[in-house]
Structures are given as structure tokens and as C-alpha cells.
Amino acid sequence: MNECDSTIWKPLPEPVTYLRQSIESGREWTRALMEAMALWTVPEEIFRGTQLVYLIASEAFDWVTLANRLTAEVRDIIPPDDLENLLYYPGRFPTRICESDFKEILGADKYSAYQNFHYGVEVEMALQYVVESEVEKRFYAGGRRYTADHTDAAYQTIYRGSREGLFTEFRAEYGRQERTFATFTEIKEFTYWLSKRRLRVSDKAKFASDTRKGIDALESTAQLLGGNRRSSLVENSSDTAPNAAHGGGTALGFRESIRYMTSGLDT
Length: 267
Hints:
Blueprint: H1 3-6, H2 15-24, H3 29-39, E1 44-47, E2 50-53, E3 55-56, E4 60-61, H4 63-71, H5 80-87, H6 99-106, H7 108-141, H8 151-159, H9 163-173, H10 184-201, H11 204-225, H12 254-261
Helix pairs in contact: 2-3, 3-4, 6-7, 7-8, 7-10, 7-11
């Protein structure tokens, strides 16, 4: 019998079990959480009656949703304030884990998918918010006082298309029927799709400049959210958001988008 034949195969531990056992044995909970995320292999699931998608467009790893799902089952052994600090700062790492550690724990493939989500969803939402704010400032600087929806103007600036038209194009590409509402998962998928469109329609300088705007806005808003937290319980089972394609202003303002993103089943 050769060495390979004598090796005993051992299955990977179940992520939630691993997370609880690791924390209860004294392991620092943020590191245990990241290790449990590395063990996770299911791209989506139905959890407590709601479909959760952890891999947007099979490319972008929504680690915030997965972190919320995993910690939902160990909330009794994680300090609640620490948990909210983690879940309310999308795109940021826990204070006790640096980015290089996160990359090493997740592995190259999952870390690459995490970066896809960070830049393709989180930063893109921030860019939409800041460009719409710029449009609003120009509007009111002109002396106009009535309320107006500036979302289409922002979308034209960024993506060269109207919000409704782009959403219709996105749904058609994915073979989905038009409807009067959108789940937040679909909004994240749409946002990721838009990030790819922006890459196609923008020249290199504009793409880099717009991406920097999004990054700066994300960092600034994370500071603002620190003083306006709410409970991020996974038990909330709502999975719908205002329709991104049919009027009513921005589908979700950036701050509201962050709240949806970190509220567990609102995905």
C-alpha cells in the first residue's frame, strides 16, 4: 500500500458547527467567522424561508450576507455591539483581522470573488449615490426649488442609459419577466451588471475617476452609519425593496442600501 492509499480522508467540518465550537473553545470570534466562511461551499440557499445568494452572478462573493447568516446561529456567544460593528461596515474588515489575513484565510479564489463584490456592488452603489448627489447640487444651485427625481440623470452620467431602460435590459439578459418589485438580491445583481457596463462604456480615465468617487463615498458613509445603527437581526424575513426600474426616486439611497445589505434576510 503506497502513501496515498494509506491516507485517511476526513470531511471538512460543517461551517456553523465549526464556528460555534471554535468560539466556545476560546478562539477569537472574528477569525473563527472568517474560517467558517472559508469552509462554506453553498452558493445560495433557503434559510428561514428566504433565499440567500452568496455568489452574485457566480462571480461576486457577498461576504456580508454570509457573515450575517452564519452569525445568526451563534448570536448568543458573540458580543452584540461587536457583531453590529462588523455587519454595519460593508467593505471593511473586522478590526482584529487585516486584509492580508482575510485573503489567506479565504483562499485565492474566494478572496478574488470577494473583491468582485466589493468593487462591483458596494463601491458601485456608493458611486450611484455620490453622482446623484452631484446632480442634485447642480439642480438646486440653479435656483430651482421643486422636488425632482435625479436618478435617471445620474444613470445617464455613469452608464449612458436610463434606469428603467437599463433594468429592463438587465432582466431581459437574465431571462426574467418584468414585475413591479425587486428583491434586494436582484438589486445587487443589477448593480454588479451595471459595474460591468460602466467598464464597457467608459474610457479608462473616467472609469478610474468614478471608481475613486465610489470608494471615497463608501468610506465616508461608513463613518456616518456609525452613529445611526439599528439591529441587524437575521430574523427579519422581508426580501423586497422598492422597484429599481419604476420611478419613486432612487430605488434605494446609498445609506438605505447599506442597511438592506447588512440586515440579513433583506437580500
